[in-house]
Amino acid sequence: MSDPHAITREIDRSHMQVSDEVAIQITNMNKWYGQFHVLRDINMTVNRGERIVICGPSGSGKSTLIRCINRLEEHQAGQIVVDGTELTSDLKNIDKVRSEVGMVFQHFNLFPHLTILENCTLAPIWVRKIPRKEAEETAMHYLSKVKIPEQAHKYPGQLSGGQQQRVAIARSLCMRPRIMLFDEPTSALDPEMIKEVLDTMIELAEEGMTMLCVTHEMGFAQAVANRVIFMDQGQVVEQNEPKEFFNNPQSDRTKLFLSQILGH
Amino acid sequence: MQNSATFVRKEMLQAQEPPTSERGAIKWVRENLFSSALNSVLTIVGLVAAFLVIKAALPWLLHSVWNANSLGECRDIIAARYGEGATGACWAVVRERWHQYLFGFYPQELFWRPTMAFGLMFVALAPVLYYGNQRVNTIMTGVVSILTILALIGISLAFPQTIGGVEAGALAVLVAALVLGGLTAVAWLAPKRLLYFTLLYPAVGFYLLWGGSIWGPIGTLAGFAVLVVVYNLTKGQLGVVVGTGAGVVAAAVWWLAIQSHVTGALHSVLPLGTAHVDSDEFGGFLLAFVIGVTAIAASLPMGILLALGRRSDMPLIKALSVGFIEFIRGVPLITMLFTASLLLQYFLPPRSNFDLILRVIILVTFFSAAYIAEVIRGGLAALPRGQYEAADALGLDYWQAQRLIVMPQALKISIPGIVSSFIGLFKDTTLVALVGLHDPLQGVTKVVRAAIEWKGIYWEPYIFVGLIFFACCFSMSRYSMYLERKLKRDHR
Fold first, then answer.
1. Total beta-carbon pairs less than 8 A apart between chain A and chain B
2. Is B394 within 8 Å of chain A by CB?
3. Between chains, do B394 and A112 touch, taking CB under 8 Å as contact?
4. Cα–Cα distance for residue pair B463/B458, rounded to 1 Å
5. pTM to 2 decimals?
6. B433-482 pLDDT tens trace
7. Domains, chain B, with CATH or none
8. A2 by DSSP, 3-state: which?
């Protein structure tokens, strides 16, 4: 297996525990873009502490799926319950879910007019109503965790891609979310920056964070995930433990995908 | 083996001085003026044209006359000095009539009031224009204060007045020195506090300009208090949006129906006030600034709301915004001004007597807001979708996202367009001549040229007015460039 970003470090699994508590429950969920049936009958249960990697060819609906979990996309049929709150058009519920669920985007989406520190303190101050001083302390704590406290007073435009993505992770963590969603966090990065972002994500997993990652980093999936979900044409085709998933894929579609992604 | 392809350089070549054709002025001239036959011809034609213009205009400017009482006198002086048939500029008209260009027919003994209002306007603007830059803020307040006091001294010397044996001008200077000194002290010690003065300024400026009973502006301010009180009482049960609506309705009822009775009663009990100046007496740059500045200040927030409305998901809000913007943009400003002077009165409740300047301000604001809304919509469209998504994902609600994330960026992108609109609006204030107001360009110049002494003068008033307009618009343009530089966040 020739993965350029193969995870070589030792993973500390002492805090990686999957509990019985349900974090996300998706039942018979369907979504259409106009006439296009993008998500078909999705059923999925995520327990607290799970680290799930979702993979699949482009256009398979994997990003749309995790964007439905914090209602960046609206689903038209079925049910999504996050932390006991069902996502409907009720704005209060949506805001409640969003403040509990952190999201990291492919293109970072930092706020370019604010400093790194302001990016991190904005939501805690305005959504959580935390005093500025306290929010800044929390922000500095998480910025140290992602190893860029010295950049706190710079603007996002002055940072490298990898640094920006780590700030984006810190920004999400400042809201102290119970679930983290990652939407292809390393796809827009230069190869040498992918590792620093993956390291940050691994540390997060080691602390027991519930994570859903859409990613093609199979090394990360093997090292950290407790479950890999393969999607194609808006459906879950296969899911399994990483070892089984990679060594013994069941469906032909999965085999083809894995041969393409790992073959070179 | 001598001819083998292997080559190793032992000594590195030193950089050499470029030839003269690649250096300094000669290079610049060759590249920019004579790079091709066509460019050489154009350069020569341009030089000749420039020479002809200067040759025609320079003697006229050099033969300027400042001291004369009429155009005829000007011509006699020029003929005597420079010979029969010489041309010259007669700036004496500016010297004689500058006060009309600045204040129109505003009573001369009250010139200190618009001067004071003008100075205070910059004090009020300083904390907004240089937000977060307290040093510049303080310097601007100080400089404006000194200039205002100097202007007041100049006016009191030009139009000496005595009230009850006291030199009125000296009194005005003293009052101004106290007020401006106080404000400068505030700017020095607590620059943030100056924003309270900015909030209060519309009432202060209005009262200084129009005067009359002190209860008028206090009654108008009370309308805002009504708005806030009703909002606070109702928002608990009805939510923020309905609460705001109820507050606005209550304030409108206060302003249109109740205020005049209350202020009338108060005035009959306690008749405090100063001399009232009628809107007919306003003119010149005073009028241009009153209309321009008010419309600029009011059209920006209105334009922001319209731009947001146009992008709203709510069909009614969207339809209203689109309808408003497209209707206003589709109608010439002159039509709007005629509407202001003739039609608007029909739509208002009976016996409410809206001032003509106020009506013009309202419609010019609408006009400008429609354009600003489209400029800002461009800025909103330029924002990547990821910014909205990130704001949503962090749990910010709509207004928080707009205020903290979207608007700071969209407005920054829109600065050139917004300032362009403002400059256009400021110059368009001269169109109010068409509804009988004395704007500096058309209105006042007509009055000046109707006087027997200045009949036949042509260039000088227009050049004078044009220069002042240029100074104002150029300052706005430079300020917008400063702002763009200041807000630049990438590549530093």
1. 73
2. yes
3. no
4. 9
5. 0.86
6. 888 888 998 889 888 988 888 988 888 999 999 999 999 999 999 999 99
7. 60-96 (no CATH), 109-210 (no CATH), 212-274 (no CATH), 279-487 (1.10.3720.10)
8. coil
